[in-house]
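tokens incoming
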């Protein structure tokens, strides 16, 4: 039982290390990439307001 727990902890530590190595650019692991979150910048807000204004008239 102790050997199985030790193996899971070791695998977890390797995954954490791989994630941080990928995040900081030491290695490139595509399935560990963090997806970027879409945000609304100034241009998107202005175009959204323009579209709303067109459809209100």
């Amino acid at each position: 039982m102790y050997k199985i727990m030790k193996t899971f902890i070791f695998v977890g530590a390797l995954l954490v290390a791989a994630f941080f190595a990928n995040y900081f650019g030491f290695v490139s692991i595509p399935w560990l990439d963090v997806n970027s979150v879409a945000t609304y910048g100034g241009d998107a807000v202005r175009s959204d307001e323009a579209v709303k204004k067109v459809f209100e008239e």
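note: The CA atoms of residues 16 and 22 lie 10 Å apart.
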